[in-house]
Specification:
Length: about 190
């Protein structure tokens, strides 16, 4: 896969950690990922809302985790950092959970900026690199910059489909990789 978004990478890493050991389970898992990916692409608004709500729940859990670690901090500065971090996570997560549609707009804008920044970083890496993969890194950077630019140019009107569609594509890539790894050998990663 030439154009690897951060969230594609994260999804792929999580998928690799959870790859079933038997071929039958791999195929069933791949079929479930394929159906979920297709559903996310067909119903992008619903999948974007689900991704946004999960994002809010994870932020809330991170805030609670920071609060639980508050007492373990050794000095006042560390305690203050954990308290402020916890409040930021809890308030942000609560906002996302209470206002998922507004949050989807914000997350889409963040995603567009993230893609442009990642694309520029890939272009810089391609400029500094030497070797056979340089052209792929350059292509990755160009495509990622273009996708980020497209998201930003059409924001906020593209909010309805961007997150759900990209999430669905990530699930489809995971399904295809799972199908490819069901040939008997253990799953391999390219990164």
């Amino acid at each position: 896969m030439v154009c690897q978004f951060k969230w594609f990478r994260i999804t792929r890493k999580l998928n690799e950690m959870a790859v079933p050991s038997s071929n039958g389970l791999r195929i069933v898992t791949a079929l479930l990922l394929l159906v979920a990916g297709a559903a996310s692409i067909v119903f992008p608004f619903l999948s974007a809302a689900a991704v946004t709500l999960v994002f809010g729940a994870v932020a809330m859990a991170a805030g609670v985790s920071q609060l639980l670690r508050f007492g373990a901090a050794s000095d006042l500065g560390a305690k203050l950092f954990r308290l402020l971090s916890a409040l930021l996570y809890v308030v942000g997560g609560l906002f996302v959970l209470l206002f998922p549609v507004d949050s989807t707009f914000s997350i889409t804008l963040f995603l567009g900026v993230l893609l442009v920044v990642e694309g520029v970083m890939e272009l810089a890496a391609a400029a500094a690199a030497a070797g056979p993969a340089r052209s792929l890194v350059l292509l990755d950077g160009i495509i990622t910059c273009l996708l980020g630019g497209m998201v930003l140019a059409e924001w906020p009107s593209d909010t309805v489909w961007v997150i759900g569609t990209l999430f669905g594509m990530a699930l489809l890539f995971s399904a295809f990789r799972m199908f490819a790894s069901s040939g008997g050998e253990s799953p391999q990663t390219n990164s």
